[in-house]
Write a structure and sequence with these properties.
Thrombin, subunit H; 6-stranded antiparallel barrel; 12 strands; about 25% strand
Amino acid sequence: MRNKRMFTLMIGFILCIAVIGFSLSDRKELTWPEKFVKDSAAYVQQWFYKPAGYIAGFFEDIGNLRTIYEENEQLRITAAAYSRDKIKYNFIEKENERYKAELSFTERQKEMYNYNYLIAQVISVSNDANNRTMMINLGSKNGIKPNMAVTTIDGLIGLVSSVTPFTAAVTPITELDEASPTFNSIAVTIMGRENDSFGILSSYNKETSRLVMTKIAENDKMDIQDTVITSGLGNVYPRGLVVGTVESKQLGDFGLTYTASVKLSASFDHLTEVFVVQVPELEDAGQ
């Protein structure tokens, strides 16, 4: 009996819904109770929908933060690698430019004079005021001998003073002093006027950081900014090595010759690589 009553109620409820739906399909406007129920349901739904949206957005933001963190880590690694590679690239680029300049220098010098240039690394520089020499990593095993000229791509820097099997000591021309027992004057001339100009580099003025050139003839056409090169006379320094430029010229002590001040072309700051000049003619003559 109870089941029959329940069944009857269900059938009635279904029919009621069907009638309401049928009546709504024919009407364009809802009654005010229907509007009230619909608005009430929408109002309640928005309070459930908004928190659900916030919660979904919160978990989505957490996922995005994880992705952003991983991207930042990758960018940090990439930036570090770029910085390291940039430093390495700049070092290689500068080294390559230096090698190109050195190769151009040796090829140009070989075309002018039949010399052989042995590249050497400067391994130490003495701070002794009475013995300002520098050591290079080439010695007698490499064909280095005393009194060989040493230069850079910019200009002459000195003379080999002593040699061991694997190293050599170089006395810089800034130690040029007529009073020294190992003094070797440097016979020089002017580039482009080798047959018309002559002088002797006899000392280095440490106060002005300039070489002193003496024995310049009265009729010598030497002028300011002329390039001074070794003349090869004296058989110590080979000819054609750039020394510096004429900075000033004045009358000598006795009024018969002139003296000049020469600014060095080579820089002695942070020397790392130098060239030892081998003269084949002298090598052959010694054999």
